[in-house]
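User: Last request for today: this protein with flavin mononucleotide, please.
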Amino acid sequence: MRLVRSASPAQGEVKSISGASANQTSGKVLIAYFSQTGNTDGFAKIIQDMSGADIFRIERKEPYSASSNAQVLYAEALTEQRENAVPDLKAYLEDAGLNIDDYDTILLGYCNWWASIPAPVRSFLMHYDMSGKTIVPFCSMGGGRFGQTISAVAKLCPSSTIKKGLDVTYASYDNDEISNWLKANGIITGN
Ligand SMILES: Cc1cc2nc3c(=O)[nH]c(=O)nc-3n(C[C@H](O)[C@H](O)[C@H](O)COP(=O)(O)O)c2cc1C
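Assistant: Here's the final one, the structure of the complex with flavin mononucleotide:
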């Protein structure tokens, strides 16, 4: 199968990047992520280890048919994307004892699906008021970098500030790169 690989800004910045530089982030940070085959999950857990932030896994209420890159999964995801689907989630922040209002910064993780965000991420972003929050995206993908995902997030969260994201190919995480990215976004401090 040939995946669509659209050109994307190298670091996926699209709008109102208020100082993607080293301004220390104020307030609490939440890691919210979707991962179907485990790569973004590993990425999110490294970020949690480094930052100590709260973490929430976004999951579709009705599970997808495959937990590997199978044809059936490509088809399901494509159908959802074409329909702009907003599937129910298995759990919401409240179910985990978390409150979106407590967080100023959301580290938003997802896999690149058909160059866009998986539908459960759309569900998550539509469920909450993200106005005024800072969103820092991270993404696992097979070569298409952020694709159109940043603009998809920006459309769903027009009153949020989107900062510099970090993408990795599958599970090829680099701890130094992740640490430097977290520092550049003011999530952690250090030299
Ligand atoms: C339905 C589907 C669509 C995908 N579309 C793309 C794509 O457009 N571009 C890309 O680079 N990778 C694409 N991939 C590859 C995934 O982004 C990659 O396998 C990623 O590491 C999966 O992350 P996860 O293990 O957290 O689910 C796709 C994978 C699936 C299952």
